[in-house]
Description:
Chain A is α/β, with parallel strands linked by helices and 303 residues long. Chain A has helices at residues 2-6, 15-31, 68-74, 109-126, 151-160, 170-179, 196-204, 221-225, 247-271, 285-302; strands at residues 45-46, 50-56, 78-83, 89-95, 130-136, 140-147, 184-190, 212-219, 232-236, 242-245, 275-280. In chain A, helix 2 packs parallel to helix 10 (285-302). An 8-stranded mixed beta sheet of chain B has the order 18-17-19-20-28-27-26-23. A 5-stranded mixed beta sheet of chain B has the order 6-5-4-7-8, with helices on both faces.
Amino acid sequence: MRRAVADPGARFIDPTALARIGNLELIARTVVDGFVAGLHRSPYLGLSLDFAEYRAYMPGDDVRRVDWRLYARTDRYYVKEYEAETNADFMAVLDVSRSMGYGSGGITKLDYARYLAATLACFSHRQRDRVGLIAFDDEVVERVPASARNYEVVLDAIGRLEAGRRGSLAGPLRRAAESLGRRGIVVVVSDFYEEPESAVAAVRQLRARGGDVIVFHVLDPAEIELPFDRAATFRDLESGEAIPVIPTELRAQYRALVEAHTASLARLFAAEGIDYTLVSTASPLDHVLFGYLAARQKLMRVR
Amino acid sequence: MGLSFLAPAFLLGLAALAVPILVHLTQRQRKDVVEFPSLMFLERIPYRSVRRQRIRHWMLFLIRCLAIVLLAAAFSRPFLDRPDPPLALGATAREVVILVDRSYSMGYGERWADAGAAVRRVVGELGPEDRATLIAFDEAAVEVVPATTDRGRILAALDTLAPGSRTTRYAPALQLAGRILAASQRPRREAVLVSDLQRRGWGAAEGAKLPAGAALVPVVVGAGDDAGNAMVAAVTFRREPDGRAERVTATARVVNGGDSPVRGLAVALELEGREVQSRRVDVEARGAASVVFDPFILAGGGTWGTVRIARDALPADDAHHFTLAPGQAIPVLVLEGPEPGSSLYVRRALSIGEAPGFRVEARPAGWFRTSELDDKAVVVLNDAPFPTGGTGLRLREWIEEGGGLIVALGEASRVTDDAAALLPGRFGPPVDREGAALGRIDYGHPIFEPFALPRSGDLTAARFYRTRPIEPADSARVLARFDDGAPALVEGRYGRGRVLLWASSFDAFWNDLALQPVFLPFVHRLARHAAGHAESRPSYTVGQALDLDGWWEAAGRAQATAPGAVVVRTPSGRRIEVGTGGAEGAAAAESADGEMAGAGGGRVGGAAGAAARLIELLEQGFYEIREGGRGDGAARVVAVNVDLAESDLARLDAEELVAAATAPGATAAGEETAELGPAERERQQRWWWYLLAGALGLLAVEPVLANRLSRAGA
């Protein structure tokens, strides 16, 4: 029995998804040199054997990093910089507000977010990254500091998460940013029921320490399409407010509003250099991961 | 004239119209609640509440409303309130039909007197505007006094009625009463049934019902009487030849239908009106006993008589009348050929017979004397030559006068050319056969009729080893053939007599028929048919019809042809002349008048164009039938007894009869529809039916339309 509960978060890792992503890694390693390392290649420069660039010497720089050969040729002090192939912090930031508990099909948004976070944590753990977790609704409800030994704790915490109260972004994310230690990868999973500007402002706080922020906007297909036929009273899961709705009458406008909302988010996050992905809970998880990793690789190449 | 409602309270059902209105206005704000993550976007869309308050699907809405309106209208029973036709009568005028049971069980104790008193009481209660009809019934119903307000006429007719000899049947009386009441326009209609309510008279399957609105009032008479009832159930006779006469032993079966035993019940045998013997017998409760009288000699022209027990509460079943026709044993003369013992089988077979018996004499054909024919009915010429000379001539005359001849062909069979014309065919020399059998048999003929049914005797089992071929005459009828088609039995008529020609002998040499079980009944049927024998019944039952011609033929061979005109005298002393042809109609009419008067007696009728003349026997006792237009010829007697089923005095529950013979709520309906006939009332109110049908039609369409609209909306 203990064995069964020893790794409770493991149940969220779809073996099929893992296997297919494993194949994806193999393909990527073959096609693109160093792609596996680039799965989460850090944009942060540091001590490494891999040369990155030269920059002008600035007071305070370690004199041992001055390239004397270049000084001999140019008569200027340049410091040699290398890309750091270091162990990074992977921090999953999950929205567990009540709205995340919604699911029109067999899976809720929170479930989907758990799978996503657990899968990413698993990959990060394989890369010997330090794995941490922050869950929030109106405030931070769960926090596991990033640590190489916390992988099981993180999965366990993910397994225990439940959709609870009303949610907000600014407050809890500010507190999350404060708790972040070293720069690393911060993955935010939320349904972003806030105005795009405030949502982006809230997420932006997570970059305060120079970390790389990846945003997954998780929505149920019913939230995107509004497929309901019958007129009914729609009740807000978080506020409890109810209004009568004739979906057939409102569907087109609703879809346009959702589209505009996601487009704004995508635009604003892009402007902040934050990777934004809109995910439907109907999409297969591995497809989403593949798209994400491909986007990350592209991002790394740009750099 | 205006529209009114029988049940206006149902119009409150129109309030249900609010239901479809509310449904169609508010159906979009139904109880369905969808939990949604956020109303952030939905709240930004302007809310068009006006749509909620507009009725959608007008067609569906109208169908639902119309269905409710029609349902409410149908249940409120609308009708056009036409002014009532002017009536000369008051609202309480009654049409009363008085049904008086005059079956013979009404003669039990004081029942008839009680019935008379009951009818008088009903008549006495008639109002000045009330009208009454008097019907007397037993198995049939007769309107004795048509509808009248003259009470005296009814009472006078009542005095002429008396219990008859027939049994009870309520259905004809109720049907007649129903017709009278249905034709009446009086506001109150009722049938008063005065009867002892015997259960056996009611057959629910006959479906006799009074019209709706008419009431049935049973008046039960003799409810408390239980004096027991003994009856003579049957009399049987054992007839044995005694010289030229017959010795008859009569056995009477006496039944006690009461709940107490009867001790020392006197049972008397009367012959031709005189008591000749008397016995005393004890009969247990609900039991029976047999009384055997000493034999008496029946000679000459037969006799008639009665077995009578001591008079009890129901006299009608205390006597059993009978007639005994003379000469029931058929005299047969067997003339055998030179082969000794060739007639053994046929003699033995005929000597066994009873009802009728056979009186058999046998001698060699050479010893035959013509004087022997005088008292014979049948002559069997078994393997013997046809008598020649004067003897043969006399035999031919005898046959012509009605005698019966059976010729069984054998080695010695021979016939002269003169006598050959007598036979129904020419026969040839003997032919050997290898076990021929009877192939085709005319089972419709009286000789073979009893063998027609399965397991009634297999005539084809016999094997024939030698026969004589027969060439049938043109007028002859082949009754049986061998399996190769050769005639086996041929019948011919000669004058008033019959001649039967059998292609083989009656011994066991030419065939083994005599060894088969069917031999005895076959020979009996041959002899009976040759003798022209017809059954003579000792007695008839009241209600049966007597076929005068058939009866006359059965009564005596000498007068096989019925006389042209007869006079029938009924037990009550009435004379009925039964003529021929057109005279029958007059006789029947006269009889019908007598029946109308309630005296009973006999009805005479004949099928149009048919020769049959029938007398319906309606009285218990002896009918005398005399031949001759003036009725002064010799009298023959027919005994008639009552149907003992009527002696079963078990009663029918009056409520059961009322429930079965009247429509539910008949009385109430009759009072409510005092001014109008029920048919007219129903016609005025029949709108509800159409309204209900319309509502049901709309309700059938509604779900179809609703489903279609729902799918279209989706």
